[in-house]
User: Fold this.
Amino acid sequence: MDATEKQQLYLRAQEHFRNNELDKAFAEFDELGGYRDSYTYLGFISMKHPHPGVTLEFTAQCFALGRKKGDAKAVLLTADFARRIGEGEKALGYAKQAIDGLEVLSASDDFFATYLLAQYYSYTGNPEKAFTLALKAAERGYCAAEFLVSQMYAEGSGTNVDEVKAVNYIEKSAYKNYGEAQYALGFRYSKGNGVPQDDDMALKLYQMAAESGISGAAYNLALWYERNYDNANCFRWLRRAALLGDVPAMMKLAMFYEGESEHDSSSACLWYDMAASKGSSEAIFLLGEHFESGEGVPKDMKRAVECFETAAQAGYNPAQSKLGYIYKNETAFLNPERSIYWNNKAAENGDMRALCNLGLAYEFGNGVEKDPKKAFDLYLKSARLGYDRGMYNLAFCYMKGNGTREDHWQAAQYFEKAAQKGHVNAMYNIGVMYLNGDGVNKDCKRAAEWFYKAAQNNNIESIFYLGYCYLNGLGVKKYPAMAVHYFRKAADGGDVEAMFNLGYCYYNGNGVGEDRVMAKKLWKKAAAEGHAYAREVLDSIGE
Assistant:
């Protein structure tokens, strides 16, 4: 190939590159074998749009050869490449080296250098210069520059906001199959932003962008199909988005596998792991929870804590709160100081569980000096954020006058709020308060309702009280046989009051056939468990 042929092939390659015909451009630059700045173009295309068989080593080698030829574009792109492979310090050095050379190339009408320089000034806080350079590269027909100009017109960055020009430039870029422009234009059509609202056009553009490798477009397609109950296409595009590196798509796939219909914890953990590798603190935390439970991965509490620590260090509140709990309660990891540290961190960010856990630490002096007032304040903050355990602990503070004035009305309010959120012990406590008219108007019907709800959750004290209500017709129709049923169930659970009352039922044949041997047996068991009145009854009958 003589010099004239090489120059003609080079110009065709540049034209294909400007129009986003990257497969053609790659083949032509490759054929040129190092002519002019073809190595730089090859490196850029292989970095942004990987080709089968093209490795990171190939990209690095192309940029190295471009730098060797003195191409400032290759120097700046090496900085981008270094960032992508986690070599941030090298990236900064290369970027500083490149700018003067890029200015020279831009002045000589190198459209690609002009575009790269526009990007640089956009990132480093000089939007006016960035806009001027981007517009210059766009006027040469470079699709990426056209998209950048459209963004700058839309945002008023370096120029005045101009929606007409924004749409004009984004359409130019999109019609050259530039994926990011197709995605952004699709979003405009979905919202009717600067163009007529048109879901069909939005869908078409999203699909084109997704097929170009734009992960956000694939994810939006998945969401569109989900809204339209097309699960097969939803899953297809969700998977495509995840494989393109979209973290929300990875997380959604993981949650899909966590669901009942497609429950597959191993697959869920694989997607959490991929999202974690992209820096998702939520994914790291959820992966830790799987190591903790042993669901989908081998149970490994050490690895679980490592995951929680990583997520917590990144500022993820649930992980901070979780560590606060683990370091306080897990025998193998007990560390009161770390527990306080992480609970404080999570509490500073308004985590309701951490606020409650800190309250417990101050109430009982675990790892900190005992301070009932501070415990009360922390429970109050937790309760106001809607945490049932914070409400429950706050109710006890009011009940006992711990850190605040004694106020049984307030105690009842917070017990009932916690009960309404499903806190079982709170159901029992508010039931007792309604039964006795303590802090509230006496209401045996409501008491029995709360005892029933708590009993459904196997709260032994409530099971006993429900039996007591049936025995005495408190809030329910008197029904001795039902009382016996609940007394027996509570007695089997170890409740001494239930043993004592069940003994009376057997002794008197109330709700059950008379059986004084069984009655005495139950009273003896209750007495052995410390029930004083059971001992008195036995003494009174000579046992």
Remarks:
- DSSP finds 31 helices and no strands in the chain.
